[in-house]
Design a protein that fits this description.
With 279 residues, the chain is mainly beta. The chain has one domain: Jelly Rolls. The protein has 2 helices and 24 strands. The longest helix has 8 residues. The radius of gyration is 18 Å and the shape is globular. The mean pLDDT is 97. InterPro entries: KduI, KduI/IolB_isomerase, KduI_N, RmlC-like_jellyroll, RmlC_Cupin_sf. Keywords: Isomerase, Metal-binding, Zinc. Belongs to the KduI family.
Length: 279
Amino acid sequence: MNTFESRYAQSPKEVKQMDTSALRENFLIENVFEANQVNLTLSHFDRYIVGGAMPVGQKIDLPNPDDLKANFFLERRELGIINVGGKAIVTADEETYELEYKEALYIGRGTKAVSFESVNGNQPAKLYINSAPAHHAYPSKKVSKADAEIVELGAPETANHRIINKLLVNSVLQTCQLQMGMTELKSGSVWNTMPAHTHDRRMEAYFYFEVPKGQSVCHFMGQPQETRHIWMQNDQAVISPNWSIHSGAGTSNYTFIWGMAGENLDYGDMDHCAITELK
């Protein structure tokens, strides 16, 4: 059975009062993938949807939850997908796309039917999904790492040597507001998005994967002077409010997918926080 959950937005004042349980309930998405299901979580921060589809031995369809009050899921939305499992086949109306591991697909507004299947049921696809409201219908397009804009940042000395793969961004293809990419940490590096930043113009969501068995990632959130943390496991996602930092440190290196939407498409629109000023 598919799942759909709606979560309200919270102010910094509310989050200050939250204990561990409340933080996890409001921001952590623990079950992204379940066999032959599409699990979706709607955040009231910019009406952003985070989810996952995991077809095992059968084709599964992108549902149209009643809460969206739409004739079909993408009637007024756009969709981004990054495959973090076995080889996948995604059908968007009459077009079919094959996605290898870590390949991305953008599906534009107005696409009426989307379905997912695995090429090999013994190696099921795991299709990580982000969606945002859209004002225009841009063409659907597959994006591989070879098509991505790639940036290398950090250094081994500061434990944040990483490769940023900008996949579904406006320097690669046209979108309304959705942007997605993938950051791969080098061996020996554990810190992502450090120095941290906020951007009131956009919310964000992080999905952590390739976290080795027995290891975890500590995700940091909150205002720069009032930070909180959430311990996360492999294949879990977390919602980051517009006013919050979003950074993490793992007990090993790992990979994470960032997705965001909001007021602009300027990847560099960040309000940086000095490391020594975080509290």
